[in-house]
Prior knowledge:
Helix content: 55-70%
Number of helices: 7
Number of strands: 0
Structural class: mainly alpha
Distance between the termini: 84 Å
Strand content: under 5%
Radius of gyration: 27 Å
Oligomer: single chain
Shape: elongated
Largest sheet: none
Amino acid sequence: MARPTRLNDPAFMEDVTDLLAQGIPQVLIAQSYGVPESTLGNWKKRKDFKRMLAAKLVAYGKEKLAKITDDKWLLERHTAFREAFAPPKQEVKQEVTGSIELLLKEIDGKGIPKPPSD
């Protein structure tokens, strides 16, 4: 006979998937329910658990999208939505201006040795 699991309790599974969908770290959820983190990881491999978690993530995303002006920062930081909502990466370019002579005078004034001359 297989060992009983707390996932047979629909209210328990509901609570755990709710917390995961909200982005609560898995280690904290496991600790709060007194189960090893590896057990929670194994639960996440179960089809019924995966299906419920996916539905909760969709519901969470829809809820936050409805309030996007206030909660966009949550979606940017949530592991399930980060890629879709993070601001685009920008390349930073900086132009160096000035003369080498001025730079060398500044370096010399600070006691930094000059590079050897050719």
